[in-house]
Design brief:
- This protein is mostly helical and about 55 residues long.
- Helix content is about 90%, strand content about 0%.
- The longest helix has 28 residues.
- The chain is elongated and about 45 Å long.
- About 15% of the residues are buried.
- This is Phosphatidate cytidylyltransferase.
- Keywords: Membrane, Transmembrane, Transmembrane helix.
Length: about 55
């Protein structure tokens, strides 16, 4: 991926939307799990970008 930080920011934004949606709906656990999934993906992109930057 050429822009992992952009993808990570997008994943964080999607996770935030799921967290906000979870607070206003009856499906709190489902939205929180989706948010956590996107947040984990975002952190994975950030860590991968940092490792690639250090390696090259």
């Amino acid at each position: 991926m050429k822009r992992p930080h952009l993808i990570a920011a997008l994943c964080f934004a999607i996770a935030g939307l799921f967290y906000i949606a979870g607070l206003s709906k009856d499906y709190l656990v489902g939205f929180l799990l989706l948010g956590v999934g996107f947040e984990v993906a975002a952190w994975a992109n950030v860590i991968k970008a940092l490792r690639d930057k250090r390696a090259g």
